[in-house]
């Protein structure tokens, strides 16, 4: 009969291999933070299921207790000494590698949607959404925005490769569909340099379009963007 | 020439005092006092113009943070416990089962001991607020003064009712029980009032409604009716029940771990079960109430909504997901331990359903905890094409979060249903059909919740918020509302195959009860901080700016450390209060030194209760 400990180790190893090596065959690799998070969740599941009954607890934890307390004989006793030496060293090495100065920038926990300044809150688009404004907006977009945000509104413009982080993908339901039009108006008008100091440092190469585009053009380009990306702005009123 | 001061001259008996000279010297005295009066006036003006005071070292904001959080947690417990203590009492009254009455009394005993400490922290908080933030308090007093009076009246009524409810417990048994139940109702109504009035002050700071005209009462009333008042009232009311339930569960868990006799083990095992049950059932509607609150905040002010959900406070919601996840896992783990240990022989039968539920819960937790913007190194971000993962990035938005939270609620409810049915065999002729119907409904509900969640990505946000999310909640509620009476009917005629054995739970069950309580306290500290700091640099959002030296949001790590400190302090406080509350029991359980220990005959022992006041039987003796 297979030991629950071995089953748990196989499960953890399998999940790690899937997240680290198999999933990237189909999509972008996962960051380490996410892999560790999922492994922690799997481990907690193993612990919960393994300790449900008295028999399960003994089968799962018994060998660990006996190994650590030294109630064992033979080659396993040597393995115990080895683990007791190697484990603190591993912890020390891990701590050192996390704290040692490095030329690499720290992992990002960037805030994508900073809060807009008060003067932009609650602004409504003064222009109606109709064929004329959509076309006008798309024209302005094609001339000014598409090199970065892409002709298909998917963030894959010809210049997009030059930016890190890349330009926003408007077709993604997690971007402009989550925002009100006033928010886009602020971000287009003030650009990356207009971002608030809270949650610095910002990483945005968005130009400050207020010097190039009038407010009317900015509002119309917003109409064109939503239409082109197949998204709707967040509102609190339903459209008729 | 000898010089006399005016006072010496007056005192000197040789100094002639006539009416004119008295007037003259009096006038001189007034002239002399003028500067003093002027200084006093200056001092008064200066005192009036003081906007802030500080406490060196710890800082005014931090001390308010600690005291307010302790007061809120204690108040949550004190206002939540009477709700289920009263329900327990009614159950005991209606079913004629004295154990429910005893349990209700034990809950109330914890309440009475915590009540004074809550009031104490309320008083300290008030003094500190007046002293440290005089300008803000002057403004709030100007707006809310009529509600201060109402609050004082409610507080007096609540205190008087609580005294009568607790001290009259044994006296109001039998025919007077209805009167005692009525007192419990009043206690809860006053408690509700005590909660919603200060909620108005706090929510006014976040979403103020200010009118310049009208009487004092009209101004106070319109300020109370601000957009987030009722969402916070409902959310706190439910959260208080959850907090109270899990803390009572933790109390029972600790007493269970310390129990020596079989009776004690049985009783505290049962009490722990009831505490966990109350906590879980309060927790089921809590995500919906929280969602409504966030919706109102977002609708009230986009800036505040984004600060919370997409801005610098967004990471707190990932921590929230983790804490809620642990809470769901802890509560379910306790149910499952109950099946394995209280109902001998059930373990094998329910192993597979438990594993399935666990997998669903963990998968939901994984989705809930996946942030929209991932923490990634530069190289990792480059490979992903940004901080959004092209595949898992879809888990980061509300449609996914709402879906998994609904599924977790559904699984937890089914966990309870499974516990309810364990050890019994349905005998009704229609049992098979009913179970089949429940299975079909459960599958349809799960598919519908997931389907709406996926569809939510392809519709405008307002459709998702107003219809899809509401529909998901209604589906889960429908399952709860239909399954509960159906299961009750099934169980009414069911045959018990294995009797439930109390007092057999392993020690880890006691620890899981304590863990649940700690998670709830941490959760309330976390979300209290989120709600409060969403005002950023405003005391009253958009009305009164914070101009103190603390007008900045602390780093998330610093805030998290404070939340942990607050949780730790509250746990210490609760432990101390409960220790004091049960001192009398320990004294009672010790026989006098000069008397021999009387061993009761077999079968005559009553379950050991930790009731502070004597039971009615003991009183009669």
Show the helix and strand layout.
The complex is a heterodimer of chains A (240) and B (621).
Chain A: H1 4-22, H2 32-50, H3 54-69, H4 75-99, H5 131-144, H6 146-149, H7 181-190, H8 215-229
Helix pairs in contact in A: 1-2, 5-8, 7-8
Chain B: H1 6-11, H2 19-49, H3 60-95, H4 98-132, H5 134-167, H6 177-206, H7 216-224, H8 229-258, H9 262-283, H10 286-300, H11 302-309, H12 314-342, H13 346-369, H14 378-384, H15 398-421, E1 424-425, H16 431-455, H17 461-492, E2 495-496, H18 507-533, E3 538-540, E4 544-545, H19 556-581, H20 583-589, H21 616-620
Antiparallel strand pairs in B: 1-2, 3-4
Helix pairs in contact in B: 3-4, 3-6, 3-8, 3-19, 4-5, 4-19, 5-6, 5-7, 6-8, 8-9, 8-10, 8-18, 9-12, 9-15, 10-11, 11-12, 12-13, 12-15, 12-18, 13-15, 15-16, 15-17, 16-17, 18-19
Largest interface: A-B, 62 and 68 residues
Computed over alpha carbons, the radius of gyration of chain B is 30 Å
The tally of beta strands of chain A, per DSSP, is 0
Q: How many domains of chain A?
A: 2
The main β sheet of chain A shows up as:
none
Could you report the average pLDDT of chain A, rounded to the nearest whole number? 88
